[in-house]
């Protein structure tokens, strides 16, 4: 059974409380339960992790090599700043779909640039919590193509 890591970065533990007009009312626990159930329906094992620490996210990407077939990464604000996360994805070569709840291109200009995008398979943004299942479909499709 394919195995996918859903990795959430800083402040995403506050989902549901945090700026709900932008990020929605769904909590991280609900998002994780939904994507795990969605994966189970597709025959995919989904593991979820969250950290507010950049280094812990780098470690999780390293640990995914040989353990998971792909990563769905919402790197939060580190998306816009972290060469370390970019290098971890490039270095491990674990296929990664970049995900954002909000449409980062419709927001402040500092959110328009992603360090992750050049090393990601692709990006999904702007669909709120539904983006996690969209991203799971995307990574499953990509893995099916690349075999
Ligand atoms: C986010 C967008 C980022 O710009 C922001 O810093 C986040 C969440 C999103 O899911 O829309 O923390 O990644």
Annotation keywords:
globular, about 35% helix, Rossmann fold, binds 1,3,4-trihydroxy-5-OXO-cyclohexanecarboxylic acid, about 150 residues, alpha/beta
**Pattern of helices and strands:** EHHEHEHEEH
Using only C-alpha atoms, the radius of gyration works out to: 14 Å
Structural class: alpha/beta
Indicate the mean pLDDT. 97
Give the helix tally. Answer: 5
Largest sheet: 5 strands, parallel
Q: Output the CATH topology.
A: Rossmann fold
- Output the CATH class name: Alpha Beta
CATH-scheme architecture:
3-Layer(aba) Sandwich
Low-confidence stretches: none
Q: What is the helical fraction, as a range of percent?
A: 25-40%
Strand line-up in the sheet with most strands: 2-1-3-4-5
Shape: globular
How far apart are the termini?
Answer: 13 Å
Strand content: 15-25%
Ligands (ions, cofactors included): 1,3,4-trihydroxy-5-OXO-cyclohexanecarboxylic acid
Name given to the CATH homologous superfamily: Dehydroquinase, class II
Q: How many runs of DSSP E, i.e. beta strands?
A: 5
